[in-house]
UniProtKB/TrEMBL annotation, chain B:
Subunit structure, as described in the record: Consists of a catalytic RNA component and at least 4-5 protein subunits.
Alphabetized UniProt keyword annotations: Cytoplasm, Endonuclease, Hydrolase, Nuclease, tRNA processing
Protein name: Ribonuclease P protein component 3
GO biological process entries: tRNA 5'-leader removal
Cellular location(s): Cytoplasm
Annotated family: Belongs to the eukaryotic/archaeal RNase P protein component 3 family.
UniProt key word Lipoprotein: no
Principal place of residence: cytoplasm
Catalytic reactions of this protein: Endonucleolytic cleavage of RNA, removing 5'-extranucleotides from tRNA precursor
GO cellular component, one term: ribonuclease P complex
Gene Ontology MF term list: ribonuclease P activity
Coiled coil spans: none
KW Transcription (keyword) present: no
Amino acid sequence: MKPRPPTMRIKKRYVLAAIVPNYPSIDSKVLYVAIAEAITGLYGDGAGAALHHAVVFAGDGYLIARCSRGSEQFLATALAVVTEVDGQRVAFRTLATSGTIHALRRRMRQPVERPEREDLEVDGVIYEVHVRESQKVDLIEKGCNSQKLLFLVEQDLQER
Amino acid sequence: MHCTDICTCSYPAGDSSLTRMTMEAGALGFDTIVLPVEQPAVIGNVSVLPARVIETRHVREVIRDLGRTKEGQVMIVMAGDASFIRGVVPLRGVHLLAGVERQRKNAFDHVSARLAAEKNVGVTIDLFPLLYLKGLQRQRVLQRYADLLTLHRRYEFPFVIGSFARSILDQRSVREMTLLCALFGMEKEEVIRGLTSLPGVLHQLLPVRVVE
């Protein structure tokens, strides 16, 4: 099949967002559904279809979503209202918008490797400890259906 | 530009510690955060202002609670019906009126708007329901905010925008707040004014009195 000439193609924009917390591995398809629901909830089916949105990358705590040019504000608003994906509480922090994926990839920082810490017991619940940059510590409840999250800093752990 | 965010609880009531919420607020473009804590603090470059939230149906109880206020506390009164709002807004020491979107449409009317403007009492725009409500309930909140915006443009009472976050996952950046406020027709300049208006509300200017 002959590809569509460049002038006939839809102009696209890409939006980079950080996924908070960054450890759950979320599938692109699940992310797409969550964003699609947010867009439909805010703007309806008609406007949602005009956005031509898609998730082109998800991993390392980042997400790159695509939309048609001129609708990146709508996509960023929809990303701001997503609070849960596949039963996990998350937040998307929009960082940048660009015309190319390459430009956004340059803005993605590699996650800093931290020495692993032992599991911690808080109020009778055992948490997995994830140490992040700037002394931030994320605690995630251990178990298959873990839901409980705690967001602390090193100082809070020392005070305990 | 000194942007202020309002949050409602930190660890152990919420899932994020005070330090973590303050750090997150700094990363999201705020330099002051209001939290129901006992003492003011500065963490990194972000100032923490202590707040007290009064939630009652009786004006008498609000007056009693205002008497127990510590200096430097931001007094936030949760809105009730029309008579409650009209009774509370003129009280000295009330800084912010929150939760107007939870009340009936006529609870905050043009009389309350004029009173709020005269007494320099801020009316809060809580972004939390926009994130967590869906469908008809979110539409109702958006309608209330659009109504408030109309009154604000007419009577010019202070607007204070806040995420009212209970966790770092509920906190939003200045840019995201601008986008969310655009949902009910707020302009970017109005959002910036709403994020920077708290110092003006806290330092209420009293009428000039001639002392002989």
